[in-house]
Amino acid sequence: ATGPVTVAEYMREALTNPGQGYYTRRGGIGEGGDFVTSPEISQVFGELIGIWYISEWIATGKPKAFQLVELGPGRGTLTDDILRVFNQLASLLSKCDVSIHLVEVSPKLSEIQALMLTGGKVQSNAEDKSAYMKGISKTGIPIFWYRDIQDVPPGYSFYLAHEFFDALPIHKFQRTEKGWREVLVDIDPEVPDQLRFVLSPSSTPATQNFIQPEETRDHVEVCPEAGVIIQRLACRIEKYGGAALVADYGHDGTKTDTFRGFRNHKLHDVLRAPGTADLTADVDFSYLRKMTQGRTATLGPIKQWEFLKNMGIDLRLQVLLQNSRDPATHEQLLHSYDMLMNPKKMGDCFNFFALLPHHRLAHPDKKHKPESKSPLPPVAGFGELLLK
């Protein structure tokens, strides 16, 4: 009726349309679904992330309370693994008030999360407008569900976004002789029930707002929603403290066309059968860094294999191998380690990126003042692990 739509509108409709959207209808994670994520492959992944948060909590002087806020928690596997670590280190966290806050738009997935994390003991929450559901984890920690990050209560928080930003709607742009043009999705006049990409005849509001003047690429994908969310995280961390860890496939402002679809673990034409496949695009970490607007310090992106190695995955693997006598378990552990760490599998394509308060990283001007306090502890995962 209105002519071509932006790629962002197309993506939003295909993924989150209330009746027919891919995530609202099925959200196919896991072996039987359309894609497999790291926490589904190995518990070690989530455990090491849990350790990262505890290490940051200790480094900032063990505040009396912290919120763990996960954006788009999938089936809840990652939070479950992190909670197991918190439980194992309960004596360390005994004086700390820990709560879990999940930002989830899919009703289907929030049910799966509730089942995994609380064993299904949840109540929908009508009187409190912000959280639509609440429960208690199997280990006794309160869990709340929200539709928007804005609804999560303020306070010292650790944010986690694992394979979250890659599913947010992107705008696509192409440089032409007449300047930047936006890539749009249109009906193919030759084949009535098929879609095709076209270029906007003139510049669109998005081309004027989202292309950086210093851009050197000829094709660019921009995710304004990711920019907004990163700004919100940066503001919260600047004001209340904490940290954010982002793990996703992406690049540092170098790639061009990364928009793709997945169905049954295979690449799927993004314009075919919208609503039946997962649509995704690589995260541009250089854009996220720019969008913090200097409110927080940023670390990374570094490759997943490097982050996990720095976090001590090799040591953890040895312990798990020693503790199990079963050849099938050994096989499974080595296979999942290879999936996570092998540069040809997930090791190289996934990246870790962190937002931290500026004061968490040593101030360069302190170096000349010998009377300043002891040096700040290094940030785990982003530097080599030194075993004392």
From TrEMBL:
Pfam families (UniProt xref): Methyltransf_28 (PF02636)
Localization in the cell: Mitochondrion
EC nos: 2.1.1.320
Keywords from the UniProt entry: Methyltransferase, Mitochondrion, Transferase, Transit peptide
Presence of the UniProt keyword Transferase in the record: yes
GO (cellular component) term, any one: mitochondrion
BP GO annotations: methylation; mitochondrial respiratory chain complex I assembly
Catalytic activity entry: L-arginyl-[protein] + 2 S-adenosyl-L-methionine = N(omega),N(omega)'-dimethyl-L-arginyl-[protein] + 2 S-adenosyl-L-homocysteine + 2 H(+)
Superkingdom of origin organism: Eukaryota
GO MF annotations, alphabetized: protein-arginine omega-N symmetric methyltransferase activity
Keyword Transferase: yes
InterPro entries: NDUFAF7, NDUFAF7_sf, SAM-dependent_MTases_sf
Primary location class: mitochondrion
Function (record text): Arginine methyltransferase involved in the assembly or stability of mitochondrial NADH:ubiquinone oxidoreductase complex (complex I). Acts by mediating symmetric dimethylation of 'Arg-118' of NDUFS2 after it assembles into the complex I, stabilizing the early intermediate complex.
Descriptive protein name: Protein arginine methyltransferase NDUFAF7
Lineage: Eukaryota, Metazoa, Chordata, Craniata, Vertebrata
Name of encoding gene: Ndufaf7
